[in-house]
Amino acid sequence: MQAATTRICLALTEKSLAEDLALIEGNRRHIDLVELRADFLDPGELARVASFPARAGLPVILTIRRRSEGGHFVGSESERIALLEGAIGGGWAFVDLEEDLLAPALDAAAERSGVRVIRSFHDYSGVPQGLVARTRRLARNPSELPKAAVMPRSTRDLLALLGACSELAGLEKIILGMGEWGFPTRILSGRLGSYLTYCTAGKVQAAPGHVDPLALDELYRVRSLTAATRLFCVIGNPVMHSRSPLIHNSGYRAAGLDACYLPIQIDDPALFLPVADRLGVEGASVTIPHKESIIPLLAERDPFVDRIGSCNTMVRLALAPGDARAAPFARGAARARWRGENTDASGFLAPLLAAVGGGKAAERRGGEGHPPRSPLAGLRALVIGAGGASRAVVAALVEAGCAVAILNRTLDRAQRLAAEFGCCAEPLSSAGVERAASAVGAGAAGHPASLPFDLIVQTTSAGMRPHEDEDPLPFYEFRGGEIVYELVYAPRETVLLARAAHAGCRTIGGFEMLLAQAYLQFKLFTGVEFPEDAKRRLAG
Ligand code: NAP
Using CA atoms, how far apart are residues 14 and 36, in angstroms rounded to an integer? Predict the structure, then answer.
């Protein structure tokens, strides 16, 4: 196994040295070195920075960043150089000096004091043309460590940056992409050949896209990622809020798998394929807005993907031994091929079947020679919403033999979905609920007249953070006999779910579905079951 090479560098951005030292203490376990961003300090603190390395107890980078490169230093350039020169003898491991800073006396002082120069440039406007050549030219002598920090603004930019990392493979350097689009370069810094990755723990981020040291070290375990670590991801736009990295990475840890799962923000799904090839990604969860647009890019599809027109899981097809595409960062290699699956429907059904219970399941089991009947068969279901999630829900319920009615704010969207799956569609209103109830057979033989639906599934984004106050069904009074299933998982309990629980209904929250579909993806990605102990911790 290849040795771990990624170092975690905590950028210190507090106003006082005492607060910066407290940040080090709070995070010491998770970091390898720190960068004192002296440009964030109160002016009165600057005179005392020379004593900082001795108090930090870790290698320290000294940086006084000027405004033009995203820093906070407001003085003149000669004042900045004087401050750096005054501090340089204090036992720093590195000093970060910009590419265009011409201060021979400062360079000489750094050399005399045994302080290694990081020769840097920052581009907040994008990924510049000629990044490779510029990075190669940065170091003024062999002891300097070049640093390129750029700001990808699209998947195409990320791809250009990954290409540059590949071309610079033999060079010792720091290279990173800032912001959401550059996030993979912060996590996979070691694999991409960067000497370190930066993070922030204070109140102010030192640069866009920083995460905290705990997340880098324990969630993504960047210090132990190697070329052999298997990589998985979630793609979407936006995607940084996703809970999936927490779920999947907990599973790898519990199962003892050398694997890492990270969010990759993708605007053009077609460009995800070369990104995945470059990084060596083996499997991807797919979320909004790519669940449909990814389908034409798949080499193989589970029939259910075609039936519901939505793919939430991509698995890289196995490669023959020795196939160049198996190697991450393989340049010019042929594209990997992908199989599409959908775990939303099965993930939706799993908690529902558990709620319906084995007793009913046993009652409904088919007789000799007959296929088993779903325990959900015959249930009268009301589905609120007609978007992507609703498609998977409606398909699963119809397949299980439920009578389904769909209510949606935009009626024609509900009508199109209903026509596809042979159910009824109504507007999201009190009258719509009444007509939906008679369509699914309320009051018919075997069903109590007082209970219009056995199951109500809420699939709209109403009630989702930051719209926690919304209840998409305020005109419906729960009777207490319904099973109420809410797909929204942030917050864990929505207004609608709380109202249903108060009326005595059995309730299922969206987090349960999120977990269930992730467990199925985990199996598709890794070939092993999600460990039970990790399941218990996540559900708790
Ligand atoms: P989508 O395709 O954009 O559909 C959104 C649906 O919500 C549409 O039916 C839309 O109605 C409706 N809607 C939005 N705001 C509304 C409001 N204020 N009042 C009434 N209806 C409203 O989104 P999606 O992919 O289906 O996702 C929907 C929700 O399900 C999200 O909260 C998502 O997080 C959640 N989800 C959860 C899981 C899980 O594992 N728990 C999985 C997938 C999705 P119109 O057609 O009238 O616009």
Answer: 9
